[in-house]
Design a protein that fits this description.
The structure holds two protein chains of two kinds. Chain A is built from two helices and seven strands. By secondary structure, chain A is an alpha+beta fold. Classes of the chains: A alpha+beta, B alpha+beta. At the A-B interface, helix 1, strand 3 and helix 2 of A face helix 5 of B.
């Protein structure tokens, strides 16, 4: 799980959880996002997530230095959803590359809910 | 004015939109957050432009109708983060106008508050020090002033908005460290202030801004011409539709084209398709209803035009085998004809135009290095921001030549290094000699501030002259000669023997003479010489040599 690489001082591992937290924070700061969503398999209800477990709305698959992620969000009614999704993608990609040095691959945005 | 009618408000918004267009570049330049891609101004302008398109050819009876159309237009055309926030602000503004025919002062105040509130509602974790902060700051300040009943005219209200906006804008770097680091204010916030300025200027000063020629949007196509499968980009609207044909029309288009966008909204359907038979598409569409805004472009032709310039440049680069005709060569970055001449006179083989505000790319360095037929090449970036791209070019270039970068921060350092260069010594010795020469001189550059700022205890207004030495501001003021003289004072010491003054394009010969005479009187024992640099950024560059 996660990404490993080595430099002259030793090994470095970045776990998926850690990447998910970075993604979670940068998505939450993105304009238009009012919550992260987690769909539990058992009841299918979309839950709004607080900050502690915001990684739950995010699935990260990091391989060969490329980060792919699924992000589940809830947006505010009356905002332009495609643009918000695009903004999140840009912001998340930028955050991944800036903080971890990894490349960002597919960033999929799932709009699971809308707040009225 | 006590209130705004729909007509006045509409004209005001149109003028504001054009004013925003004039400021796109200024706003773009500030964009460092959240992603430093320099598009905030473009995005905000595209968003507001979409609003204006929505209201342009229509007549509105009430401000309620008008602002709802504006909000709807901005929602449709929102681009980027700042665009979404702007559209949300407009939506909040419009919400408060329900049932109002005119916009009076109490309503305006309530609208601003509602705009800020609804902008904040749409984000989970608002970042302070952005456009949001400015919007909220304005709303709060205006509300407070309105309570004390000191506002009686809309003009006053807008003036207050502008002043309060500027105040909050200047606070953004304190709230968002990334802005402070980059020494800028928030770009979206700036955009918002520009919008209020545009409205104020229109109403108070009666300045109506005309539509400026739109700059062609260069959407860089990365595909090759022969990869374009469908040649014609076809766009139109079908009007007067009785039923929803979105799906069946889309299905048809898929059989003859790609990049299909079909959106139906009530009676109108928008179509965008890339196809080889635009005739067929239009024939088919005519069966459904009447067509408007038809636009057909040949994409191959457009694309060829676009890539022509690029390929011409690239071909030049692929020169056969590298020619080597001499031992040493020099590549220098320079700005200004005077400097170019001086550097050429000192033996520089290839000059890359650029420097402050116009940084050359690694690509420029690569082609320069390839063009110089020497075994050892010294590269002088002559600007601290350019050193990086010079270094990057070393990693990218494929050459047998021995390329060394001499990390010069300005052109006088380069001149000093070139003077000390000795053709009979080897590379290492020369690098050492040049570095000594660079360390032995002191340079002060005098330029004009492009924005208000406060740094090193200097309060600087836009347009003030500032003196910079070793990356720090050492002097500021309104009088060019005074600033230049006191900068000279700061770099001269007991060991100084020569003072060279390079004067730029925007300096009159009287000023040069005055400065030289001042300095001669001050330092009778020092040789003072002046040269023309032709540089349009630095009015004076003063160099103290031992």
């Amino acid at each position: 799980m996660g990404v490993y690489f080595e430099n002259e001082f030793g090994k470095i591992e970045i776990t998926n959880d850690c990447i998910a937290t970075i993604i979670g924070l940068s998505s939450m700061e993105s304009y238009g996002v009012v919550g992260m969503a987690s769909k539990s398999v058992t009841d299918g209800i979309v839950n709004l997530l607080g900050r502690e477990n915001l990684q739950k709305g995010i699935k990260v698959i990091a391989e060969n230095g490329v980060v792919n992620a699924d992000i589940h969000i809830i947006v505010e009614y009356g905002t332009r959803i495609p643009v918000i999704a695009q903004n999140i993608k840009e912001r998340v990609s930028y955050a991944i590359e800036k903080y971890t040095g990894l490349k960002s691959g597919n960033i999929n945005i799932y709009v699971d809910g809308i707040r009225l | 004015m006590k209130f705004l009618t729909a007509d006045v408000l509409k004209d005001m918004l149109k003028s504001t939109n054009n004013y925003l267009k004039l400021n796109i570049k200024k706003i773009n330049a500030l964009n460092v957050f959240p992603v430093p891609d320099g598009d905030t101004g473009t995005n905000m302008s595209a968003t507001l432009d979409s609003s204006i398109k929505e209201i342009d050819s229509k007549v509105f009876k009430s401000v309620d109708e008008l602002m709802n159309a504006v909000a709807f237009g901005s929602l449709k055309g929102a681009r980027g983060n700042s665009g979404v926030i702007l559209s949300q602000l407009l939506r909040g503004f419009a919400k408060e106008l329900k049932g109002k025919d005119v916009l009076d002062i109490p309503t305006f105040v309530a609208c601003l508050k509602s705009a800020s509130a609804s902008a904040y509602r749409a984000v989970m974790k608002p970042t302070e020090g952005t456009m949001l902060t400015v919007a909220r700051g304005i709303a709060e300040d205006v509300e407070r002033e309105a309570l004390s009943n000191s506002i009686s005219e809309i003009e006053e209200l807008l003036e207050l908005c502008v002043l309060s906006g500027r105040k909050w804008l200047s606070k953004t770097p304190e709230m968002l460290p990334i802005l402070k680091e980059a020494n800028v204010v928030d770009s979206g916030g700036m955009g918002l202030v520009v919008i209020f300025e545009g409205m104020y200027k229109f109403l108070k000063e009666g300045i109506s801004f005309e539509d400026v020629q739109e700059e062609a949007v260069n959407e860089v196509a990365s595909i090759k011409t022969n990869e374009i499968k469908f040649t014609y980009c076809t766009e139109f609207f079908i009007t007067g539709l009785k039923r929803n044909i979105e799906d069946e029309f889309k299905e048809y288009l898929q059989t003859i084209g790609d990049s299909i966008i079909v959106i139906q909204d009530g009676e109108i359907l928008k179509t965008h398709v890339h196809t080889n038979s635009p005739g067929k598409v239009i024939e088919k569409a005519l069966k459904y209803g009447e067509l408007i805004n038809i636009k057909i472009d040949n994409m191959k032709y457009q694309h060829q035009e676009f890539v022509k310039a690029e390929t011409a440049q690239k071909e030049d680069e692929n020169i056969e085998d590298e020619m080597i005709t001499k031992e040493y060569g020099f590549v220098a970055v320079s700005q200004g004809e005077g400097f170019n001449e001086i550097l050429k006179g000192l033996g520089v083989d290839f000059i890359i135009e650029g420097g402050q505000t116009m940084n050359p790319s690694a690509e420029d360095f690569i082609s320069a290095i390839k063009n110089v037929p020497a075994k050892n090449i010294f590269v002088f970036p002559n600007n601290k921001n350019v050193i990086m791209s010079a270094e990057l070019s070393l990693q990218l270039i494929n050459t047998k030549k021995n390329v060394k970068i001499v990390k010069t921060n300005n052109i006088p350092e380069c001149i000093a290094a070139l003077i000390r260069f000795d053709i009979n010594s080897d590379v290492e010795t020369n690098i050492q000699r040049m570095q000594e020469a660079i360390d032995s001189i002191k340079v002060a550059e005098i330029t004009q501030a492009v924005r208000d700022t406060k740094i090193n205890g200097f309060e600087i207004k836009e347009g003030d002259f500032i003196g910079i030495s070793k990356k720090e501001i050492i002097q500021s003021g309104k009088d060019l000669i005074k600033v230049a003289s006191s900068c000279a004072k700061k770099i001269v010491d007991d060991s100084t023997q020569i003072l060279s003054i390079y004067y730029g394009k925007n300096v009159s010969s009287d000023d040069v003479q005055k400065l030289v005479e001042n300095l001669k009187a001050e330092y009778p024992q020092i040789d003072i010489e002046s040269y023309e640099s032709g540089n349009d950024i630095y009015h004076f560059i003063i160099v103290a040599e031992m």
